Queue: 3 jobs
Job 1
Amino acid sequence: MPLTSYPARPQSNCLLLNISNLPSCLHNEKAQTLARTKRINLALQGGGAHGAFTWGVLDHLLEQDTVEIGWISAASAGAVNAVAVASGLAEGGREGARAKLRQLWEAVYKAGVPDFIRLNPVLSSLGTLPAVSGMAKMFSPYEFNPLGFDPLRRLLTETIDFDRLRAASPVELLIAATDVGTGRPRFFRCHELTVEAVLASACLPTLHHAVEIEGRAYWDGGFSANPDIVRLALESPIGDTLIVLLNPTNVSGTPTRLEDIAAQTSRLTFNAPLMRDIEIIEAVREAEGGWLQRRFKRPTRLSSLAQHRFHLIEAGRHTAGLPAGSKMKPDWGLFTYLHGAGRTEAYKWLDGSRSRIGRQSTVDLKARFLSELPRFALPRPRMAVVNPAPASEAAVPQITGPRDEHTPR
């Protein structure tokens, strides 16, 4: 299937010339562009198919010549997006990263029913993801998937050049996986990143076997770091981090149906690591801002954490009303809807906050997360998420639902 990509932006041939030979006007223009460039870390939360929202955010950021991605901390679906960005940047710069992200999400859609279903004589008769979800509630993956088939392995192997990523990634990665024995996160960096590390970061224990690396078993990174922002702020030389949050942090009403209870349990579980990190950051800020610190001005190792600038893009208003099982549904209509929503939210954030990057935070973490939180209602979504069968294997269907000027055509 040919890759559907966005129209390439015109590229200046001047970048291929020795800058000393440039006309003064072009030299000044290049210098002004470099001066306007804002460097920023990314912290990408996991969320299954809802990670298509993060794809949209990244897609818009990669279009901006004045925004440069530094480090990326990520878990689960966020980790999959992160390695696609790093791999694409290593292979073809910004346009390469945008194309790699689209290639990856198209491959997720085309995979459809996971390979282990087709190859398992029991599950192949069920044939639908809801049925598999029901089986997962009754049986261990070691029972209904004894050979450990994971379609994500083949997808990543075919899409991501891990050798090149390790050797030439222009961004540092912190890919989190959770140690099954201790519950502590392990962070895989670019120089040690393999397909197993990404599979470990995205390993839901109700669906997949634990991933073993160097004698240790790992589950989804979202259990322990979703995403980690403390280590990122302490270690990255860049003083700004943009958090891309997929899960609503506060919803109205008490779930009573089994699927809604399960969905809310999942939200609470996977939001807990981020809440913990925010509490740590605010505690450090309070300690660093004490009168003794102000009087003696003694910087500590935690000073960079206290002074770090945070920014936030949220998917909550777009994901809160989606069906409980939508995270597990590889639906192109859903992907396109969330991708467009991510692009729109990124545009709005950059439009209002670009000048503040490098100067001040654009989100008050304490006010946003540790005080009374905004509540997201949980109505059924108005848009119909559909999964039309493609006319041929050569084309990926396009949704005919909501669209704005930032949604790809």
Job 2
Amino acid sequence: MRLILAVQSDKVCSPLLQDLAQKGITRILPTRPPHKPELLRDHDYWMQRAITEAGKAQARNEVPIGCVIVRDGKIIARGHNLRETKQDPAGHAELIAIRKAARKLGSWRLIDTTLYVTLEPCTMCMGAIILARIPTVVFGCYDPKGGAAGSLFDLSCDSRLNHRVTLLPNVLESDCSKLLSDFFAELRKRKRSARLT
């Protein structure tokens, strides 16, 4: 008899799942993690809140990346990119939100939270997510030039680390991607205009 195993990402991360795959499991079906029934809002709703945060970054001429952290059906922290404004290489939306969430909860352990971000986290942000013990990360679009949740690296399920992260990619992907492509198209247009004057 062959089994069908449901896992929470498109990749077989744990040694146990790899071992089961070698023992004749024919398919691995991606699933979304279980959610508490009292939480009626879906991932699209929370990602829309992250997109709103990204709009705040864009209003400051920052790369439009936004993040919210949710616990028990409520946003406990928000952040948007402030790298240029603060001239801070660590001014990423995720880090800002993680710091706020830790202050609000009075703990660096952000268990039972979900982090929503418009762009796939980079290595720095995935490191902070792992250290904060955030169990689930939902992101809008992949970052092929700097992503550490599947694009360049996948730190979410590295067996050498002490925490694993469930990833849910491509939530409102086209909205998140358009926000970034429109921003960079406008930036290129401004640079061309500046060269012509």
Job 3
Amino acid sequence: MKQYLLIIIVCLACINTSAQQVIQLKLSSKISQSNAPMVVQLHKYGSVKSAVVEIDGMETPCQLDDLDKDGVMDELCFMTDIAGKTIQTASITLYHHGKPRVYPAKTYAEIVLRNPKVKEKNKHDIYLSSITIDQETGNPYQVLHHHGIAFENELIAMRIYMDKRQTIDLYGKFHKRLELKETQFYTSEAQKALGYGDDVLWVGNSFGLGALRGWDGTTPTMLEDVKHRTQRILSKGPIRTIVEVEDAGWTIAPGIEPVNMTLRYTLYAGRRDFAVDVTLNRNMSATEFSSGIINVKNSEELGDNDGLRGCWGADWPTSDTINGRRETVGLGIYVPREYRVKEMPANKDNYCTVIKPVGNHIRYHLTYTSANESFGYHSAREWSNYLKAWKRNIDNPILVCEEQSAKSFTAVQ
């Protein structure tokens, strides 16, 4: 009997041990950073169902994401504030049972199909997780409510037009909170009276904030010839939202074999910037593309001639200059050196940067502010200082060392 009991105890110990794993990380940074995102790849840890993250002994919210939708969590993310030249200890417990812990939502994303029975512009109620539109669709811009996928955190909110422009249009907030579920980018007068934000940028055919376009050697080109356009939500949660725009069968120019391109936009809680990761289905390192920011009317150009471009200016976001108001915004784009070909002189429409892939990948970063914000920036000088600090943070990611294997890797910024 004692032998059987011993076997049961040993077996139970093995089950408990295999049911969870603990990872110990050491985090360090050359400079002080706040709301710095950290990402752990989970493929080597088996099927993870839940996780707890502690930094220096204090639990911090985390998020598990199944990015390829195969039922297995691919990444764990969390955020940290760290002082320069210090070391933090992050303890991550991965569980192979249970459900993800619930933390307050700090990000949101939506794809809303127009409902012809709904008359109020912020009450449409057909929600999708993805949509694909074929080339035969005459005007894809009009298919979706607010014209494309929308996503936000408590500071900023954007929508991406589902047409040949694929422009990122901007929503400015007065207060820190999630708003798109209530306003759907069409804020009512009653909501405005309660301090809700609204559309703050007229984009036209410009880059808006960081749209990716082709490049014909002198001019940006639209995504005209695309067989299938897809927009999808990969995740939305307490730490981040990830959305994708896919262009399948894009003929960049006559005579060039069509390419499949996916743009992934990752927005973290507590930040006013987001990363754009462009993936192509083959090596395109010899092909040039373009991106940039709109030249807001009478804007002041900001930048460093080394990948960072920004502006500060004001314009009407709509053609209704009677009931609307001019909106002041600060915009920014940072293209790291490995993807940058050249920065073009500003013209009346854009601040343009010519870029090219490394193999089949491009990565760049976008940011903005609205002068309406009670928590943001209110002058070109303040915005310029922010942009410089923003670039410095991107160029100095937090260093991470896993204690068990002493294998170093860097955080995803």
